[in-house]
Design brief:
Elements (H helix, E strand, L loop, with lengths): L9 H8 L2 H6 E6 L21 H17 L9 H4 L10 H13 L19 H9 L10 E6 L17
Antiparallel strand pairs: 1-2
Length: 166
């Protein structure tokens, strides 16, 4: 079930954007087309990507090794071991930071085709609004912002913050 909140004015939008209750309890994702499904790129039909964890791990591992060879220091020597796991969950907690790195920086490399199973969301409704209307390919009148209650994010799904603890 989708709950639609339609803002008829910038004042209504700003009321939500400036509300501590909204910003502390919800995550946001902007879609430039209201018909887009809430799926990570790796699992979209048009992604031309092999949608299985083994293929994703292989691609991300290769990307990480490449940027290590180019001088990126991860300051932990366990990177090679985290992709060899028998976990029932994918991705594991240890994999997430490397997947986030690939998701946000591979596009500007020879690995631009990498797609991950992470779904970008934000705590900031303004950032979601930007992504909802920035793609000129779609009519921004049909753009929307998906609102996700943090309390509804259940195991095995997690909210991952890349800079957490650093």
């Amino acid at each position: 079930m989708r709950l639609a909140i339609i803002c008829e004015s910038i004042t209504e939008y700003e009321k939500i954007a400036n509300s501590k209750e909204w910003n502390n309890n919800y995550l946001f994702r902007g879609h430039s087309c209201e018909n887009f499904k809430l799926l990570p790129k790796a699992y979209r039909i048009d992604s031309n990507f092999i949608t299985n964890p083994e293929a994703e791990i292989f691609c991300i591992y290769d990307f990480i090794l490449d940027i290590q060879r180019r001088g990126y220091d991860f300051s932990d020597n366990g990177i090679l071991n985290i992709f060899n796991t028998n976990s029932n969950y994918f991705p594991t907690d240890d994999m997430r930071k490397y997947m986030a790195l690939a998701q946000h920086y591979a596009f500007d490399s020879k690995y631009h085709w990498i797609k991950t199973s992470l779904l970008d969301v934000t705590y900031n409704i303004d950032i979601a609004a930007y992504f909802a209307v920035s793609d000129k390919q779609y009519d921004s009148e049909n753009a929307n912002i998906i609102v996700i209650s943090k309390s509804k994010v259940l195991t095995p799904y997690k909210i991952y913050e890349p800079h957490e603890g650093s």
